[in-house]
Amino acid sequence: MPKLTTKTFTILSGFIIILAALFRLYGINWDQGNHLHPDERFLTMVTNDLTWPRSILEYFETNTSGLNPHNKNYSFYVYGTWPIILTKAIAQLFSMDSYDKLNIVGRVLSALFDMVTLLVVMATSLAITKQKRAALFAGLFYAMLVLPIQLSHFYTVDSFATTCVVLALYFLVTKQFGARLAIFTGLAISAKISSVLLLIPIALAYLLVFEWKGRTTTVWKHRLHIVFEASAVLLLIAITIRISYPYLFDGMLMLNPKVLANWRELTSFDGPLTHFPPALQWIKTSPFFLLINTALFGLGLFQTLFFIIALFPFISALFHKKLPKLAQLILSWILLICFYQSTRFAKPLRYLFVIYPSIAVITGVGMHMLFEKWKRTRLSRFLPHSIVLLIVLLSIWPISFMSIYTYPHTRVLASKWIYKEIPKTATIAWEHWDDPLPLLIDNHQGNEYKTIQLGMYNPDTKEKWRMLSDQLSQTDYLILSSNRVYGGIGHAKERYPQTNRYYQLLFSEKLGFEKIVEFTSRPTLFGFQIIDDNAEESFTVYDHPKVTIYINKARLSADQLYTLIILK
Predict the structure, then answer these.
(1) Fewest Cβ atoms closer than 10 Å to its Cβ: which of 15, 365, 540, 547?
(2) Edge-to-edge, what's the strand order for the sheet holding 450-454?
(3) C-alpha to C-alpha distances, 404 to 172, 307, 401, nearest whole angstrom
(4) CA 23 to chain centre
(5) 250, 257 in Cβ contact below 8 A?
(6) What span, in angstroms and rounded, lies between the C-alpha atoms of 422 and 450?
């Protein structure tokens, strides 16, 4: 292979950056302005209601500042504040400070922050290998990872936090234990409190550079310097948090009891005894659930395969000291987060997002090493073809996934169908905790139909099913706007035996309801669909849920429905 010049490296880097930008910005208004991501919807409402303090002092006044969500009637708020403050400022700068536009600003910022993450991935790979090809491999790999692409389309704090995490890791790996390390660590924690785990690799880094042997004056000066520097970094992390997340505090140093109460409430949702609807999907999931979903959907099969292959030369290089000693922190970070998040009760795909940049670095470095060895064999003439094949295989999953953004959202399509095909005199039933349809689109006001909310998450009692049977008997059309409800309840069969039986009967059309239309938007390439219906819930229900509409054909009475569901 020809030598990689600086000019060629710059051109190829530009191509990777443009490719990543296309993946992250295309289809940014994927829900056609309908705010169909619940977490994003909440953050948009909070951001919209924020007001600027009149002074710097008021900014730090937790009980009065207009930038504190608790002061804007949002009693439950568990995210950091600087991402929404930044979004508010940018939105006002571009005259987009309204509920209908703020989410777009937030999505664009998510994408831009992820682009910064891409650049740091390349810089990290270059720093630990001094090889431009390693940086290109790593950048290309990260550019085509699906979960970062998807999260770039959402206004959440994940991309903001991950960028700060990867910057902190970069400064660790390159042994820059200074102010920048502390600031980005503080910003990461201030965006998402789980980023406090960064303190572990920071502590490990200081242990790795600490001189454990020797009693000379030089050694003791080095030890004193390390202790002083670590203390200064911790202090600056605390100062950064105090400035960027002021409402974590009540007074100068005391933690805000409202924030602590929010965290305790969030923790109460965890565990197999939870009654929090979105948490039911985690009941009886194994520690491997998150890793399997990451391999299949977040990364993709080929990406996972290449990562595993690249691990071996990366670990070998660490063992033989061909990489800087601190490069092992990248692998340690992956192992730490995988172990911690996989053993927790809740296992959303996004909980592993912070390790995707590290996975890209290892893959880029490892694949570069493999190709360097290949160059010295008799099969070196096939190396260019192999690189082309690598790129083709890596592109299959992201290109397939991006197809969902080339069509209108399934709930939008379903709403158009409802307005066109369902008589205005009809009664429509929808499930509690899922988005009701039809949406308010095409100048429709949403009050054109009589609607019934089905309380599927209520405990399975005879009273519940008397009520639901009566409601279903009055229903003309039943709409399941995603698999959120029946997917979660399906993980709690012992708690919801009748509800699970109800879904079995419904899907087999034995309740008198007949499926008349279904709207799907699955990842597709060359007409071949990738069925991801059984992926972790949050991967599908926001930007490409399956919508199913049933018509009450048999018109069974409430007593008949009750008998079918309750009596076997």
Answers:
(1) 15
(2) 450-454, 427-431, 477-480, 547-552, 513-519
(3) 38, 26, 6
(4) 16
(5) yes
(6) 12
Three-state secondary structure readout of 34-62: CCCCHHHHHHHHHHHHCCCCCCHHHHCCC
> Burial letters for 32-48: b for 16+ Cβ neighbours within 10 Å, e otherwise?
eebbbbbbbbbbbbbbb
Distance CA(246)–CA(255), nearest Å, equals 10
Q: CA-CA distances (angstroms) from residue 343 to 194, 234, 374, 412?
A: 14, 28, 39, 37
- Residue 373's CB: how many other CB atoms inside 10 A? 11
What CA–CA distances, in Å, run from 201 to 13, 124, 185, 321, 514? 29, 16, 11, 19, 56
Rounded to whole angstroms, the Cα distance separating 79 from 88 reads: 15
- Identify the segments of the chain with pLDDT beneath 70: 1-2, 568
DSSP class of residue 351 equals G
The pLDDT score that the predictor gives to residue 86 is 98
How wide is the angle at C-alpha 94 spanned by C-alphas 88 and 100, nearest 5°? 65
Close Cβ partners of 560 (under 8 Å, ≥ 6 residues apart) = none
**Letter string b/e over residues 5-22, b meaning 16 or more CB atoms within 10 A of that residue's CB:** eeeebeebbeebbebbbe
The pLDDT assigned to 464 comes to: 96
Nearest Cα to 291, choosing from 256, 229, 334? 334
Alpha-carbon separation of residue 509 from 171, 178, 411 (angstroms): 59, 65, 23
Residue at token pair 């690598």: 390
* First-to-final CA distance of the chain: 70
The neighbour count for residue 464, using CB atoms within 10 Å, is 17
Q: Which residues pair with 479 in a beta bridge?
A: 430, 549
State the Cα–Cα distance between residues 565 and 568, nearest whole angstrom: 7
Q: CB burial class (10 A; 0-12, 13-18, 19+) of residue 223? A: middle
| Residue 155 Cα distances to 43, 45, 161, angstroms | 8, 12, 12
**CA dist 132 to 139, 241, 313, 381, 447, Å?**
11, 35, 17, 21, 60
Peptide bond into 438 cis (omega under 30): yes
User: Which DSSP letter does residue 526 get?
Assistant: T
Query: H or E element: which one contains 521?
Result: none
DSSP for residue 453: E
Tell me if 308 sits within 8 A of 359, measured CB to CB: no
pLDDT score at 374? 79
Whole-number percent of the chain with pLDDT over 70: 99
Please name the amino acid found at residue 171. Answer: F
- Alpha helices, DSSP H, located in 294-355: 301-319, 328-342
Cα separation, 465 vs 471, in Å, equals 9
Distance CA 61, CA 119 (A): 36
Q: Which of 550, 548, 551 is nearest to 410 (CA)?
A: 548
Q: Which residues pair with 529 in a beta bridge?
A: 524
Whether the Cβ atoms of residue 334 and residue 294 lie closer than 8 Å to each other: no
| Residue ranges in 403-547 assigned as alpha helix (H) | 410-421, 462-473, 484-489, 497-507, 537-540
The DSSP letter of residue 256 is: P
pLDDT confidence of residue 481: 97
